Amino acid sequence: MKTLSPGATIGILGGGQLGRMLAMAASRLGFSCIILDPDENCPAGKIARAMICADYDDETALAALSAQCDVITYEFENVPAHAVAFLQAAGSALAPPPKALAISQDRLHEKNFLQDIGVSTAPYQPVNNESDLQNAIEALGLPALLKTRRLGYDGKGQALIKNKNGLAKGWKAMQGMSSILEGFIDFAFEISVITVRGKDGNSKTYHPARNLHAGGILRRSIVPSGASPEIIAEARSIAIKIADALDYVGVLGIEFFVSKDGALMVNEFAPRVHNSGHWTVEACGISQFENHIRAIAAWPLGDTARHSNCEMENLIGEDAANWPALAAEPGALLTLYGKRHQRPGRKMGHVTRLKPL
Amino acid sequence: MKTLSPGATIGILGGGQLGRMLAMAASRLGFSCIILDPDENCPAGKIARAMICADYDDETALAALSAQCDVITYEFENVPAHAVAFLQAAGSALAPPPKALAISQDRLHEKNFLQDIGVSTAPYQPVNNESDLQNAIEALGLPALLKTRRLGYDGKGQALIKNKNGLAKGWKAMQGMSSILEGFIDFAFEISVITVRGKDGNSKTYHPARNLHAGGILRRSIVPSGASPEIIAEARSIAIKIADALDYVGVLGIEFFVSKDGALMVNEFAPRVHNSGHWTVEACGISQFENHIRAIAAWPLGDTARHSNCEMENLIGEDAANWPALAAEPGALLTLYGKRHQRPGRKMGHVTRLKPL
Fold this sequence. Notes:
By secondary structure, chain A is an alpha+beta fold. In chain A, 29% of the residues lie in helices and 28% in strands. Chain A is built from eleven helices and 17 strands. The first copy, chain A, has helices spanning 17-28, 59-68, 81-89, 98-104, 107-116, 130-140, 167-173, 229-245, 279-283, 288-296, 323-328, and strands at residues 9-13, 32-37, 50-53, 71-74, 124-127, 144-148, 158-161, 179-183, 189-197, 203-205, 209-214, 217-223, 250-258, 264-270, 309-316, 332-336, 347-355. In chain A, strands 9, 10, 11, 12, 13, 14, 15, 16 and 17 form a nine-stranded antiparallel beta sheet that branches. A four-stranded parallel beta sheet of chain A has the order 3-2-1-4, with helices on both faces. Chain A has a four-stranded antiparallel beta sheet with strand order 5-8-6-7, with helices on both faces. In chain A, strand 13 and strand 14 form a beta hairpin. In chain A, helix 1 crosses helix 10. Chain A binds chain B through residues 3, 5-7, 20, 23-24, 27-32, 46-49, 282, 285-286, 294, 299-300, 303, 307-308, 320, 323-324, 327-328, 330-331, 333-338, 340, 349, 354, and chain B through 3, 5-7, 20, 23-24, 27-32, 46-49, 282, 285-286, 294, 299-300, 303, 307-308, 320, 323-324, 327-328, 330-331, 333-338, 340, 349, 354.
């Protein structure tokens, strides 16, 4: 792919907050954006040069996007395979690469891929029926996490099985979908590494963030993470190993468990900008969003150093109603995503509080 | 004016780079923007929810803007008085206040206003014909600067008169327009103070920047300015005095001359976000653009502290063609305004380089 000049047009599949922040970063570098999203009121559509309101597998819409854009990217990993194939057939440059999408869409493929390249994960077993589940529990012990292979995010499509009585209920929650059972990891804490890899094969990583979840949803990311320099170096090195193995282009978010004795396991990766990297907008000169745009435009990657330490807090559901207090709080840097309706569990914005390095 | 909630709509007269960066800041807080500009390809139009392509005194366009917006602001001081009157009659909330616009549109009124409130300026005399000019030169000496009272920016509508032979040529350059002659100030350096004043009458100032011009156009802003703590404190205090006297709401950019013996004179002020405050995007948690939006939305003002020192360099005309080198320069933070055509003297973007505090 050739380097895109300012003035070029970037297509984004998905117009949520990630698409919105990608579009803002693209605008800052002089690019125009076109958003494809089924919701005409999606957050990114309001700040892009144009938006195409259609389903992701609508061929007329995909053809229009392809015709107008110099490169196409996406804000979510569940882009339908059919849409990817259609865009490729239409001759569109697509980044990150479809291979990364395909692997990350399936938890079993993702874990197999990680094991194949020598990266530790939680132990796991495929589960396609109740008897598989029984065998998997024998192998991995309890408690254990049952997850659908596909379409899970923010804790959806997951069931914690604590004891054998929970087996039938757990399997029922999967609604017959192909699943995997993951051995329960009693980790000390979780970190994530936001990684960006350029067209030239160079990679950079942001400092790992420590992530705190509630109800399966990220609540806070704290930088620095408190992990030891050895763990940080190892996590960054694993992150680059994964990006290289995927022949990746763009930002890749990788979540790690850190065990009580300091061992690292990859929980999962997302082939996109990541919620646990939102702090990079406020605490770094060049954010994950700008670096994603730089990578897919075949520009040199930007510096990932931070000018401040920080803590990022997600505003979920009714948290966003607290905006007057947050607007008045000294030092609180507020971002609201422009969503019209507040719903429980919906990410409405975030607030980042900087601290001196 | 009541506090605007996220989701409200902000109208912006003018869709250049200042309107564009205002729209980005508004989006970050969850507001929508509508741009009114005669150029359908203007930089801000591409990233706003909507744009109205019309002249600034087009009543149909102004009525449409008024009907859709909760508050209307502007990116340039030369908004026609007729447009202001029309919007006020239509019941629109307008900020900054029309009084500030009216004063800053006329160099003579501006200087009279400053003198009236006890703020030092260069000595000046109104000039309406060649004989006025002769008298003014007698009074102020030479060299001196002849400027049209209205519609000057980036050094346009100005002539430096070095000796009596330049008198006729200088007056001719004014094309018969009402003008003023300013005594030449042999200042040590120039600083500017970006000031924001809220609906509640509270004001905050950013640290002064030292500004370097070439050909009448700002080239670089450097923070800190190198001025003494006493000069900085005095400049900030004068800035707030001016904002208070204007009963101002929004960001006000104030340029000062610093004389060799440390005296301050106000050169001019702009009732809008200011080129010499672009560094606040990269070096502060809350930029001049966000603080302008906060002020006109009747939000509490944001912190004006910086996390880094910095130097901002304007990319003018063909400077922007240097983007590949700037994109590759470690630590250079690049902003391009999305202008389609590069012309000599046209501001195409800027680059900010951060330094530790």
